[in-house]
């Protein structure tokens, strides 16, 4: 997948976050900044996640992926299927809104699934134990790195990498949860408009 394709998926997803009345886009950077601060604070004060913690989170995320994938097809394919033909101008507006919400839902799912997979990968990486191979240590010695510098580099790496991975995991988890919420919000809005459309038909 190219960088342009990834950007298109992200852009399409965020374009669905609108105010229903004013149709103005939400300020994503404010929310993302807050999520980043929260992730940094958690990574600072939490030493590490246990394997059990990670297993629970990965299982929960996998369930959400399955739900999103299963719900995508009926909502996308049956958004206006079986609805009575529009009679008034308001009916045509409802049909247009239903189709638009179905597109929004598809955009949300297209973003949610790879985002959640990346989150799962970040969690699983924290279950692995890493060490510096002897060949890399040997290369460091060949390039005349002092023992003190090697020690400092190793200590800094062992300290920063786990914290960065934990912060990244928390950030991705927050974004996955928010995307799932907005995805469900669009799906419920679509169903609500469909029910109102059918209920307002003349007998």
Description:
The protein has 203 residues and is an all-alpha fold. The protein has one domain. Helices cover 77% and strands 0% of the residues. It has six helices and no strands. Helix 3 packs antiparallel against helix 4, helix 3 packs parallel to helix 6 and helix 4 runs antiparallel to helix 6. It starts with a helix and ends with a helix. The model has no long low-confidence stretch (mean pLDDT 81).
Structural class: mainly alpha
Percent helix among the residues?
A: over 70%
Care to count the β-strands? Answer: 0
Largest sheet: none
Summed up, the helix count is 6
Silhouette: elongated
| Mean of pLDDT | 81
Poorly predicted sequence stretches spanning 5 or more consecutive residues:
none
The H/E string reads HHHHHH
**Total domain units:** 1
**C-alpha Rg (nearest Å):** 23 Å
Provide the β-strand percentage band: under 5%
Our measurement of the CA-to-CA distance between the termini, rounded to an integer number of angstroms, reads 51 Å
């Amino acid at each position: 997948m190219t960088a342009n394709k990834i950007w298109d998926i992200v852009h399409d997803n965020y374009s669905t976050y609108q105010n229903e009345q004013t149709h103005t886009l939400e300020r994503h950077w404010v929310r993302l900044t807050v999520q980043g601060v929260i992730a940094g604070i958690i990574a600072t004060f939490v030493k590490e996640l246990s394997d059990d913690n990670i297993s629970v989170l990965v299982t929960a995320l996998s369930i959400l992926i399955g739900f999103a994938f299963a719900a995508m097809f009926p909502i996308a394919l049956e958004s206006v299927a079986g609805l009575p033909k529009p009679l008034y101008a308001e009916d045509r507006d409802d049909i247009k809104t239903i189709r638009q919400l179905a597109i929004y839902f598809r955009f949300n799912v297209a973003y949610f699934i790879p985002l959640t997979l990346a989150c799962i990968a970040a969690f699983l990486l924290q279950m692995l134990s890493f060490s510096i191979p002897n060949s890399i240590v040997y290369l460091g010695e060949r390039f005349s790195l002092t023992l003190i510098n090697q020690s400092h580099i190793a200590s800094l790496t062992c300290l920063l990498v786990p914290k960065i991975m934990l912060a990244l995991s928390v950030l991705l988890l927050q974004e996955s949860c928010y995307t799932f919420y907005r995805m469900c919000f669009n799906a419920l809005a679509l169903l609500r408009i469909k029910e109102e459309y059918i209920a307002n038909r003349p007998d």
